[in-house]
Amino acid sequence: MRAPEIKIQGKQVSLRHYVYDKYFGIVRHKDKTIFVVTTCRNVLCISPVHLRMLPRWKCNMLRYVGWEYEDLSDEALINVYYKKRLLDGGTVDTNTGCRIWKNIVGKTKYYGEVNYLGKKWLVHRLSWKLHYGDIPEGQIVRHKCKSKLCYNIEHLELGTQKENILDQIRDGTMRRGENHPSAKLSEETVRGILHSKKSCKLIADENNISKSTVSHIRKGDCWGHLHYSGVNPKLQRKRIEAMKKRTVTRSDYQNWWDRASKKAKRQKDCLCLPLAKSDKKRGYVNIGFKSHTRRAHIVSWEYHHGGAIEGSGKGKVVRHLCGTKNCIEPSHLKIGTHEENSADKKNQGTQNGISDEKAKEIYELKGIMENRDIATKFDVTYACVWQIINKKSHKVIHTTIS
Fold first, then answer.
1. Which residue from 125, 133, 360, 386 has the least number of CB within 10 angstroms?
2. At 49, is the pLDDT very low, low, confident or very high (cuts 50, 70, 90)?
3. 3-state secondary structure of 68
4. pLDDT tens per residue across span 356-377
5. What distance in Å separates the CA atoms of residue 260 and residue 229, rounded to the nearest whole number?
6. DSSP string of 249-308?
């Protein structure tokens, strides 16, 4: 049944609006976001006592929760409205006491979703917010029960992501192994791969998977929970031994220094290691140290000062006081910041590993040769040439040239 209307100046106007305007002296026919509604729920009623002029969103909420909440503030009314929606949108499991959300929408098939003030919220998070306020940063809402669709406030509590993962492992609700939606292999097949002595290629062809997938399974990068359950203890021992090899001891530093000091040559006061072809452009010596590529001068500093550079603080570097980048002489090395290192290079005239004289020669070839040809001629990187030509580095030479 439609509300009665009246014709005014050739236009159809709601009779409720007309009566409200006449009684209260407010004319708002043109504003479509404002409604005049009845609190008695009788569509035909035009009694001024039962008429209210409210925004559309507030009308809809009050019709849903009841007009007894009319005097609440906007924030309190929104809270009451969504609490009632959550109560009406779920069913109670009599065995577990869980309140299960019925309307599962969107991509999250494992959690309930609901629109809250124009945004999508997970139902259990919204339930917590409505009862206890905003969720603190770095915290998540955990389920004490095993049901992800439950939003009973008594079954929810705050916690960290780590605690949530441990809950999933304990309750068996973690999506891993066969339970993962993108899993192509069964647990039995993976166990067979772990025990098999065949090559990765043969196993990959038999199971119609890639060779890298077989390698990841054997290393424990995927399906790792089968490794830790004792399926392949031999492989576990190998992994532990490999981890031990990566641990750096004092004797490792000593052995490296004995070899490096024999290989290095004295140049004036510096103890310089020979540069490989790949090191010449940058000027630093890269070495293989405990399965990692490291800079030789950093390892030298760590050996003589008894600790890794990471322990000296964030943003620290090892500076060359002598200006020779392949030098590993301990007295020429000092810990410092990036700003101090840049100042050293400017004072020594070795920005980008290039002296000011060399940079001047590079700049004078601007427009005569291509940048890549200049980089090849002077055995430097293309980036170094670009910085010099575009006046990004060695600004001293540009002032003298101009």
1. 133
2. confident
3. helix
4. 778 888 888 888 888 888 888 8
5. 44
6. -HHHHHHHHHHHHHH-EEETTEEEPPPPGGGTTT-PPEEEETTEEEEHHHHHHHHHHTS-
Delineate the domains of the chain, giving CATH numbers in brackets: 5-71 (no CATH), 77-171 (3.90.75), 177-245 (no CATH), 250-348 (3.90.75), 354-401 (no CATH)
Strands 113-116 vs 286-289: parallel, antiparallel or unpaired: unpaired
- The tokens for 231 are 């399926």
Banded model confidence at residue 225, pLDDT cuts 50, 70, 90 = confident
User: Residue 286 half-sphere exposure, CB side, CA atoms within 13 Å?
Assistant: 10
DSSP 73-84: -HHHHHHHHHHH
- Report which residue type is found at 236: Q
Say what the pLDDT of residue 292 is: 73
Residue pair 56/64 in contact by the 8 Å Cβ criterion: no
Residue where the block lists tokens 């006046």: 391
Residue that has been written with the tokens 């939003």 in this structure: 151
Q: How far is CA 141 from the centre of its chain?
A: 19
Report strand pairing: 156-159 vs 265-267.
Answer: unpaired
pLDDT band (50, 70, 90) for residue 112:
confident
- Cα(272)–Cα(259) distance, rounded to whole angstroms? 13
21: which 2 tokens? 């305007």
Rounded Cα distance, 284 and 279, in Å? 6
DSSP H or E segment with residue 55: strand 51-55
User: In which band, very low, low, confident or very high, does the pLDDT at 170 lie, cut at 50, 70 and 90?
Assistant: confident
- Cβ-Cβ contacts under 8 Å for 375 (sequence gap 6 or more): 381, 382, 384, 385
Say if strands 316-320 and 292-295 run parallel, antiparallel, or are unpaired: unpaired
265 vs 40: which has the higher pLDDT = 265
Closest CA to 397 of 340, 355, 339: 355
**Residue matched to tokens 């576990």:** 236
- DSSP-derived letter for residue 40 is T
